[in-house]
Automatic annotation (TrEMBL):
<dbReference type="Pfam" id="PF02275">
    <property type="entry name" value="CBAH"/>
</dbReference>
<feature type="domain" description="Choloylglycine hydrolase/NAAA C-terminal">
    <location>
        <begin position="153"/>
        <end position="323"/>
    </location>
</feature>
<dbReference type="Pfam" id="PF15508">
    <property type="entry name" value="NAAA-beta"/>
</dbReference>
<dbReference type="InterPro" id="IPR029055">
    <property type="entry name" value="Ntn_hydrolases_N"/>
</dbReference>
<dbReference type="InterPro" id="IPR029130">
    <property type="entry name" value="Acid_ceramidase_N"/>
</dbReference>
<feature type="domain" description="Acid ceramidase N-terminal">
    <location>
        <begin position="53"/>
        <end position="108"/>
    </location>
</feature>
<comment type="subunit">
    <text>Heterodimer of an alpha and a beta subunit, produced by autocatalytic cleavage.</text>
</comment>
<keyword id="KW-0325">Glycoprotein</keyword>
<feature type="active site" description="Nucleophile">
    <location>
        <position position="153"/>
    </location>
</feature>
<keyword id="KW-0732">Signal</keyword>
<dbReference type="GO" id="GO:0006631">
    <property type="term" value="P:fatty acid metabolic process"/>
</dbReference>
<dbReference type="InterPro" id="IPR016699">
    <property type="entry name" value="Acid_ceramidase-like"/>
</dbReference>
<dbReference type="GO" id="GO:0047412">
    <property type="term" value="F:N-(long-chain-acyl)ethanolamine deacylase activity"/>
</dbReference>
<dbReference type="GO" id="GO:0017064">
    <property type="term" value="F:fatty acid amide hydrolase activity"/>
</dbReference>
<dbReference type="GO" id="GO:0005764">
    <property type="term" value="C:lysosome"/>
</dbReference>
<keyword id="KW-0378">Hydrolase</keyword>
<protein>
    <recommendedName>
        <fullName>N-acylethanolamine-hydrolyzing acid amidase</fullName>
        <ecNumber>3.5.1.60</ecNumber>
    </recommendedName>
</protein>
Length: 383
């Protein structure tokens, strides 16, 4: 195709493009559309303002109450408005009661995480109870009341033809201030003579839990499941002695489970006090599943297979009749792109397409545990 050099840059005139399209017919139109799609994928800012989350390193060899100091100090100016917004979710009359309860609940949490939370409270100057409540926000609202407070998410798994399990994820929260405190964290530990990344995740300042993360064996994402009255959550809190909020379990599994099958087993059987959908992607062909969790066990585990090359989860049981636009659009786009056309870029394109991405989407990310750096450079926080 004829191009001209103008001010040091290659350009193509409109007439040149039109004559080339007329000459090459429908195939030219197809290539042009693919070119436009590539531009939209590779430059998200053309249609949506976005940024990379700031990266932090949490050293697991440090005392737990010191690990998050840098994160707290960097966000000290944003903390008041963020905490005020989250506290509006609860009637002011009950805030002091909840803070009191949260302060006493901290001693029942796994010791390491309890100490991390205590350190965050100390460095931020906020009540310990408020930091505890922030870390169990999901578990407070995950019951059969989706209209009370909406938390939506989309998770997509694709078993591509290149030997990778691509894991796409949108996290939706109707708290815009959370965008300002969204961070990327590499958790490191001394192995031999140097610090190595044990696992990575996306979380929020003041929060030690993970709802999205990966290690060298698998990737995980959490979607809200609305089922059962809130009293069931309370009963499970008592039965589990408050030791299994789902965000802590995900971090535990990323830290301690060394392979895909072990992770599936723990995530399917460990009692939780809130329902959830947990999407897991592995390293090898067929390693991918959606675990539909009740409070006691998995109600269902839907896995990738030879005749099922993708899985999509939003916030509904896949075996029930429902009308969900995010699910429908995701499936149509996957089928339209096809297995051969799925890449990290086309996965991101699906994630940032309406209505998969909406006004309450905080961030999008793509993971492939065979190439861990993809997650870091394919995570976008939306403005």
């Amino acid at each position: 195709m004829h191009r001209k050099m103008l001010n040091g840059e290659w350009t193509c005139s409109t007439s040149t493009w039109l004559s080339w399209i007329l000459k090459h017919g429908c195939h030219a139109v197809y290539l042009t559309l693919r070119y436009i799609m590539a531009l939209l994928i590779l430059f998200p800012s053309l249609s949506c303002r976005s940024r990379y989350p700031k990266r932090y390193v949490v050293d697991l060899d440090r005392p737990p109450d010191e690990r998050w100091n840098e994160v707290v100090h960097d966000h000290v100016d944003l903390i008041p408005s963020f905490m005020e917004t989250t506290q509006r979710l609860v009637p002011r009359l009950f805030l002091r009661v909840l803070f009191f309860i949260g302060e006493h609940l901290n001693r029942f949490l796994p010791r390491e995480y309890a100490e991390e939370i205590r350190g965050i409270a100390r460095e931020s100057g906020l009540p310990l109870g408020s930091i505890v409540m922030l870390n169990i926000l999901y578990d407070i609202f995950a019951f059969d009341r989706e209209k009370f407070y909406e938390m939506g998410c989309t998770s997509i798994l694709v078993d591509d033809n290149e030997g990778s399990i691509l894991h796409g994820r949108n996290l939706d929260y109707n708290i815009p201030q959370m965008r300002n405190v969204t961070i990327f964290v590499d958790f490191v530990r001394l192995q031999g003579k140097q610090k190595k990344i044990v696992y990575s995740g996306i979380t929020f300042a003041m929060s030690v839990i993970l709802h999205t993360g990966q290690n060298e064996a698998f990737s995980l994402s959490l979607n809200t499941r609305y089922t059962g009255p809130y009293v069931y959550n309370i009963i499970m809190q008592i039965l589990t002695q408050f030791r299994t909020p789902v965000g802590f379990l995900i971090r535990d599994v990323l830290s301690s489970s060394k392979n895909y099958s072990d992770a599936i087993d723990v995530l399917s059987t460990r009692p939780l006090f809130s329902p959830s959908y947990i999407t897991i992607g592995g390293r090898k062909k067929g390693e991918g599943a959606i675990i539909s969790r009740s409070r006691l066990r998995a109600d269902d585990v839907l896995s990738l297979s030879d005749d099922r090359w993708y899985l999509v989860e939003t916030n509904y049981d896949h075996w029930k009749e429902f009308e969900d636009r995010r699910m429908n659009v995701s499936i149509r786009m996957l089928e339209g792109i096809g297995r051969d056309g799925i890449t990290i870029d086309t996965m991101l394109f699906i994630l940032r397409s309406y209505p998969v991405k909406s006004s309450v989407t905080l961030f999008s990310t793509v993971m492939d545990v065979r190439f861990p750096s993809i997650m870091r450079y394919m995570t976008y926080v939306w403005s």
